[in-house]
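Final report, closing paragraph on structural work. Over the funding period we assembled a curated collection of sequence-structure pairs, and we close with a single example.
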Amino acid sequence: MAQEQIFNKNFAGIITPAFRALSAFQPAFGDLQTKDGVTENATMFSIKSNDLPAQLGNYDTDANTAFNDGSDNSNRFGKRKEIIYKEQDVPYDSTWAFREGLDRFTVNADLNSAVAERLDLQSQAKVRLFNALFGKKLTESASDDLGSVSDVVKLFGKASQTYTDMEIMTPVRAYVDPETYNAIVDAPATTTAKNSATNIDTNGVVMLKGIRVTQVPTQYMNGAKVIFTPDNIGRAFLGINIVRTIESTDFAGVELQGAGKYGAWVSDLNKKAILTAGYTKPSSTATGKSDSTKSTDAKDEAGK
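Its predicted structure, as stored:
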């Protein structure tokens, strides 16, 4: 029987810090949750929730409420609402797998060191996979698009006002594509003369209108110019079925194999706090090439 070494725990230990360092949307989803042994499990986790808002009323001191004529059919606390929590299974979004070979005759490195390096590189590849999913998850979960990004100061002012009216108390972050990021850095409102937390020499900006700004590669934005969201709005999961090396019968070395599942989740309630700007919804044509609908910016320009 071929010799096998299991690296499930090793891979989980490698990918967790890689996720913290390389995830484009890590503040929105928190630390990566890893789960070992997901062979037949299609569900990331189950939750219990209810969507009934808190009810407030006035205490009724009418003489005929709960007393006298209303003794048997009224209550001074008001109508009683029954609270029932429903169970919800949250599925994984997709699967992942890799298969590599390391031949002792040709690898030209210590085999164990080479395996460790490949596991590190595979973890980085998974984080890039997560980045694409997170951008898609956030844009598709957004409750509204704030429109054009042609005036970033006005846009961020509108976002700040929206979150204030929502009574969002947690920190809000704007994930922006490189073009929008540079527009923010170059905006008149982000000059040192206005005591802005901006360093134009290093092309860095910390806050605009009380919202922290994070630059994200365009390919992870899923068609949005800006994604506004509070931190810790969702959760990210990695399910590990197997990560192993196994002695090959086809060459003098080992096969490095891995497979599992991954996913991200945002509750329906939290989706209300996700906003986009300049969003262009991606779509696929019959030829498989990327196509898209008109963006908000394009609509605005057409309307002028």
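The radius of gyration is 26 Å. Helices lie at 8-22, 26-29, 111-141, 152-165, 178-186, 268-271, 296-303. We thank the funder for supporting this effort.
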